[in-house]
Recover the amino acids of this structure.
């Protein structure tokens, strides 16, 4: 792939031609639209697309891709724009393809427990639809009210239930994609068993739209969980969280095991709309969730809690007794991202195998606190699956450019530690542009060469989201 072959700006005549490919009014070029659709939730880049196009059908997506090939115009896919790695940012005159109008649930298959979705279906919409069928779509995260299935597939989204249900990849039964050369591929045909060679479906999951665009996805549903119950436990230090995880996993099938630091709690309580879990404050908190299927399970959880207190791993704790309390406890964790977004955070989304988490966090925390003594450093994340979110908040007095430049310096050291632990520089947010220059810390040269070769197969002219994942 050579991005230099792709034009930076489209001409007025090309935009006029684009307009003929979709319904009237479905190409926007006004400043507001360019600003809105040219970006995701990241704040490092200035959006500068040439136009926004809203296809309504697969045929229209194919026509757009063919048009882009003909004129060598770069396309950027756009879903709910909740991404955190700038994978859906158009900063170089690209044309944004928004899936907002391909947002229908097409079909429900009762026996297969699958739902055929257009890419613009919002995650919450799928979750509610599943609920109406007495079932459950288990991939969940704070941005589920805006994020779209196509984007979730593009980043192989994870979230708060991965410990039990895995990532988005586990729930994709089949995909229809339009490749970078405009071809429509039907991948895996929604089958459970299909041993017919390469599973191309998996290549498109987590590809951030660099190989092609998802135009339809068949998603699997699951039995709905019963009587979900959460506990928030205050711990004296980070190291105590791991034996707590181990103790609870020995007794219960956890549906979630999250953590956050007291600094995160500070920010949440400052909002004024979320109650504190308990009166005392501790340096770290674990939030765990399980299905209290019967009294024995709930009693087992309480007995494990008492054991953790006796061991000194837990200083205080609370267990939800109602749906409202469950929701309030989850707000302590789920509201963190949105609450701190006002501080222009420098975000890291790193992972290692679960057993290595304590020493990994300690190594990184040492580097970060030594180099950012004047910055607010917040830790939270999905500790049960080894995924930590390290967020450094921008001091008000410091300019955005200076702040990100200072963060980039320490970034290198953080990623060297990730590499030493054989970890990932992006556990669930994707690579996009923010992590692109660090890919070599998690992928070997040979792997990156294979990835580029695969891209060339599906996107020979390099028009599909160029400059994302790799340069
Ligand atoms: C989360 O775990 O809250 C999300 O991944 C978003 C974030 O990291 O801020
Ligand atoms: Zn996360």
């Amino acid at each position: 792939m050579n991005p230099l072959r792709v034009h930076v700006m489209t001409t007025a005549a090309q935009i006029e031609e684009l307009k003929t490919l979709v319904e009237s009014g479905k190409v926007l070029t006004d400043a507001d639209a360019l600003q809105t659709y040219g970006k995701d939730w990241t704040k490092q880049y200035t959006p500068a697309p040439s136009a926004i196009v809203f296809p309504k059908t697969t045929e229209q997506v194919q026509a757009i891709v063919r048009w882009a090939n003909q004129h060598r115009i770069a396309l950027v896919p756009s879903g709910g724009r909740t991404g955190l790695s700038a994978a859906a940012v158009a900063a170089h005159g690209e044309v944004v393809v928004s899936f907002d109008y391909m947002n229908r649930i097409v079909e429900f298959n009762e026996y297969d427990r699958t739902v055929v979705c257009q890419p613009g279906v919002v995650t919450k919409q799928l979750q509610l639809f599943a609920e109406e069928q007495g079932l459950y779509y288990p991939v969940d995260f704070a941005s589920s009210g805006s994020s779209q299935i196509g984007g979730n597939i593009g980043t192989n989204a994870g979230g708060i239930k991965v410990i039990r249900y895995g990532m988005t990849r586990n729930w994709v039964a089949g995909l229809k994609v339009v490749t970078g050369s405009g071809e429509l591929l039907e991948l895996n045909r929604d089958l459970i068993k299909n041993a017919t060679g390469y599973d191309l479906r998996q290549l498109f999951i987590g590809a951030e739209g660099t190989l092609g665009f998802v135009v339809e996805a068949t998603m699997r549903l699951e039995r709905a969980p019963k009587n979900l119950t959460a506990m928030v436990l205050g711990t004296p230090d980070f190291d105590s969280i791991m034996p707590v995880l181990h103790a609870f996993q020995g007794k219960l099938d956890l549906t979630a095991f999250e953590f956050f630091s007291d600094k995160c709690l500070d920010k949440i309580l400052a909002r004024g709309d979320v109650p504190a879990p308990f009166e005392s404050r501790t340096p770290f908190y674990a939030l765990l969730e399980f299905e209290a299927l019967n009294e024995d399970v709930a009693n087992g959880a309480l007995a494990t809690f008492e054991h953790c207190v006796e061991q000194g791993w837990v200083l205080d704790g609370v267990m939800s007794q109602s749906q409202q309390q469950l929701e309030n406890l989850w707000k302590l964790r789920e509201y963190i991202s949105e609450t701190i977004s006002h501080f222009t955070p420098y975000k890291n989304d790193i992972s290692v195998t679960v057993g290595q988490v304590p020493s990994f966090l300690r190594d990184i925390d040492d580097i970060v606190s030594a180099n950012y003594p004047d910055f607010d450093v917040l830790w939270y994340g999905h500790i049960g699956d080894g995924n930590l979110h390290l967020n450094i908040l921008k001091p008000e007095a410091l300019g955005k450019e200076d702040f990100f430049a200072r963060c980039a310096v320490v970034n290198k050291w953080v990623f060297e530690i990730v590499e030493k632990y054989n970890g990932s520089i992006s556990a669930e947010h994707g690579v996009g542009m923010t992590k692109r220059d660090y890919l070599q810390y998690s992928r070997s040269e040979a792997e990156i060469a294979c990835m580029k070769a695969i891209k060339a197969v599906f996107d020979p002219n390099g028009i599909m989201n160029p400059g994302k994942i790799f340069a």
In short: The mean pLDDT is 96. The pocket of D-malate (ligand 1) is lined by residues 141-142, 336-337, 349, 389 (CB under 6 Å).
